[in-house]
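Record now logged underneath.
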Amino acid sequence: MDATYDVVVVGGGVAGLSGALTLGRARRKVLVIDAGQPRNAPAQGVHMFLSRDGMPPLELLAAGRKEVAGYGGEIVTGTVAAAERLGDGRFRIVLADGSSVVAGRLLVATGGVDELPDVPGLAERWGRDVLHCPYCHGWEARDQAIGVLGTGPLAVHQALLWRQWSAEVTLFLHTAPPLTDEEREQLAARGVTVVTGEVTGVQVTGDRLGGVSVGERVIPCQALAVATRLNARAGFLAGLGLETFEDEKGGHVIGTRIPADPSGATDVPGVWVAGNLADPIEKVVGAAAAGVQAGAAINADLIAEETRAAVAARRAEGVSWEEYWDGRYSENTRMWSGNANARLVRDATDLAPGRALDLGCGEGGDAVWLARQGWRVTAVDVSGVALGRAAEHAEEAGVADRIVFERRDLGESFPEGGFDLVSACYLHALVEMPREKILRAAAAAVVPGGVLLVVGHGGWPSFQHDHPEGVHFPTPQEVFESLEPEEGEWEVLACEEFERTQNDPEGRPTLRMDNVLKLRRLR
């Protein structure tokens, strides 16, 4: 079986390790999967990280891995090929080597890949004297001849920014838009030289950048600033429905990112992002802070879910089915929407109205809908609170004369008579309930030519990860076999899983797998 973790962190850079450190200190079981391709590996040092200024990037990451391991975190080298949501709401992460692990939550901090301008020689000098950030590299390039490669509308801004570190700055317009009169005046006032024409390459002397080629000319240059496009490493998230979006600054696309709220939470419940995956211009220290923020948010989310499960388990302990459901319904003035279950509407619309039995009718949405279609309905539930609301709903809908409401523990007694339709939609409970016994009684109550419709959950909601252990959601085939059918007794009209939308506790729509068994009695 796949190893299971509270949180899997994909990406072992500063953001991912900071998140893992936070979660490890919170006593969470954490796994970090790292492909070993940090964006800043070519750089000589990390800067503006208090107490770590100038530390080589790989040395910083090695220290981070040691700290994470000190709190019980596990770190493996590998590349994630795919991620998928399981039926119980957890995630399976599949690595390129075919192995996989399961996680309750995901923190993705895979960063991005810099796409350099298409100029020969840039890639070979990247991170050494072909640079992108003056705050990261400006001090080291101070007072040198610095070139700025113009590729978009931010070129003038870049040149004026780099001017802070050197009086000898040249703006190569290359493919940037033509300068306005105001921009020319600004550059001239700051002593920035402007060179027109496209850059055709760089000149290297020994192991140092010596100049920039523009046609036949070579302009002396010891450092060259370029604006890259940072493309998010996020292809494996497509299976979860997460897509990248272009990020613009000053009307120019600077990269792609995964949208997230300030804590790093994405639109997919259970998935957080941090670092350059969420913000292409984030610095190392900011990425570390984002990882801490996401780790704390994930831990809080897990605590909230664990608390809900603990409360539910406490309420269910030693409580009868009747007490359990009366307690559930008493928590709110209305638990359900008041509408009929969509699957009942789909599967019963074309049936000729007759006598219907609605098992577990709750607040009466299904029973009222059936009565409106012309059915005479017997609606049964164990909760008196729910039945009181259902009766009011029927009165308001003007169909109270077509519905008989009965309070029953279906494990102890069952309505008498035969029915043309017996419907059992989402007949589940966390307390002990003889569901198979009830469904066999439901099947026996269907008259020849009548229909049995059983709709159930295929697993926990995608947003719920700390559910009680040992709860089994039977497949529709298992439900059919539990009815102990005789040969030739039933015609199977539907036996399938289906996907539907369910809102999480914050009101965000999520997907849930359910299943349906629809049978017609032949004899």
